[in-house]
Design goal:
single chain, alpha+beta, five-stranded antiparallel beta sheet, 9 strands, 9% strand, disordered N terminus
């Protein structure tokens, strides 16, 4: 869930949001893949995801979303989709179509799990971005007017204007951005904006977001509002650091919690690009295999050359994904980070765990985000739905790195002990990994 920036809000209908959004630019083209055409066919392929399943249950009467007089369908929707309120993070910069309803006094609230990202705006629409096995990210809105059978509306046609650009790595995806807002929440464009993931320096993160939690002397841009719309000569955000109480900033009683947890923000930034890279890996493989199939139909086709080209594309996308999954360029934390909402404890309990009780969701939060630097997104549906050829390559590459058979300097920060530990956890908690790497 996430967009986060744009000098002007998109004028198309219902773009998804604050935290999940992006500067508008040319849609579609990934490394040669137009996802509006075969084999992806983004706009004509029927979605199949957590929202379409929920809608079917609502229509059949199997599930009923309860309506809250203050928060509308939000509490019931989070429960139906198994999204914890501890994930709440709150951007207040005006960077989406619902800008008139968003301000430092009325921030947007974002909630997420591995699969769905939900944006809530006071007196506005609920925005949803959900991973889809075939389509990458799909975007919906839910009207907050009370209805017997509330209906999600697919907004992907308009949302791709911002969510299918170079800023989402040219796939239908997500992006977290950091801006420097004024007192009204308007981005001060001259002060710059920053795209955030796990490689970003902390001092460039979370501008235009509220942030609760402790982080020592390390500075970030959260909780900051400039007194005017001019570019400052320097930024003093001392008052925005190590904040545990947001009540001085706005009325927190109008939200599900009073937190915008710093650890949840760290995880969200990592997850957003992990999903994008998983989508790229899927699209690239499917497109490469499709092109190969078409080319091999030619009478003068050079099968060896065509197959080599296909494999090269799979390797390129797979290598990029593996580097991200192994946190190869993660920014090193300088001091301990602690959240406020209970997110850290809740997230860590999800597992899966190996026989020694270890999990890829276990946090470090002293020098890096996770104790074991291999992304938990390897357990997600987005990973499991990768084409077989891509999964085979990714598992093989991971096995080479973790057994130290791969001498790529990108992974030198992983010492022998760390590699062995990751390999043990992966072998026990991801049975498919063993199948693919043992020739099964």
């Amino acid at each position: 869930m996430l967009r986060l920036v744009s000098s002007q809000p998109p004028r198309t209908t219902n773009s998804y949001v604050a935290g999940l959004l992006l500067l508008c630019s040319i849609p579609w083209l990934l490394a040669g893949v137009n996802y509006e055409e075969a084999p992806i066919n983004y706009r004509t392929t029927p979605p199949s995801n957590a929202i379409t399943r929920l809608q079917q249950q609502i229509d059949q009467g199997a599930v009923s979303l309860e309506y809250d007089s203050h928060l509308g369908y939000l509490p019931s929707l989070l429960k139906a989709l198994n999204v914890s309120t501890t994930t709440q993070v709150m951007p207040f910069a005006k960077v989406s179509r619902q800008n008139p309803k968003i301000s430092p006094e009325t921030p947007r609230a974002i909630y997420f799990n591995d699969e769905v990202h939900i944006g809530y705006v006071q007196d506005g629409l609920i925005e949803v971005a959900v991973t889809d096995p075939k389509l990458g990210m799909v975007f919906y809105t839910l009207d907050q007017e009370k209805s017997e059978k509330p209906a999600f509306e697919n907004q992907s046609a308009s949302c791709l204007t911002c969510h299918g650009t170079a800023r989402t790595r040219n796939v239908p995806g997500l992006q977290v951005r950091s801006v420097v807002p004024d007192l009204k929440g308007e981005p001060v464009i001259a002060a710059g904006s920053f795209r955030s993931d796990h490689s970003s320096p902390i001092d460039k993160r979370w501008g235009g977001w509220y942030v609760t939690g402790s982080h020592g002397s390390e500075k970030h841009l959260g909780n900051l509002k400039l007194s005017d719309s001019k570019k400052p000569k320097s930024i003093d955000n001392a008052a925005g650091q190590n904040v545990s109480d947001l009540s001085p900033f706005f009325d927190t009683t109008k939200y599900l919690t009073a937190h915008s947890d710093i650890v949840a923000l760290l995880v969200l930034e990592h997850q957003a690009d992990a999903i994008n890279y998983l989508t790229i890996a899927s699209f690239e493989t499917r497109h490469a295999l499709y092109v190969q199939e078409q080319q091999l139909k030619s009478a003068d086709a050079n099968a060896d050359q065509i197959n080599a080209t296909t494999q090269a594309r799979i390797v390129k996308a797979g290598d990029t994904l593996v580097k991200y999954l192994l946190f190869s360029n993660e920014f090193q934390l300088k001091e301990q980070v602690k959240g406020t909402s209970g997110f850290t404890e809740q997230f860590s309990k999800v597992g899966p765990f190996d026989s020694k009780g270890r999990s890829l969701r276990e946090f470090d939060l002293n020098s890096r985000i996770f104790k074991y630097p291999l992304s938990y997104t390897i357990y997600t549906g987005a990973f499991d739905s990768l084409p077989d050829a891509m999964k085979k390559y990714v598992y093989s590459k991971l096995n080479e790195v973790l057994t130290a058979a791969d001498a790529d300097p990108t992974f030198t920060k992983l010492d022998i002990s760390a590699r062995a530990t990751l390999l043990e956890i992966l072998r026990e908690t991801k049975p498919e990994f063993v199948k693919y790497t043992s020739g099964g």
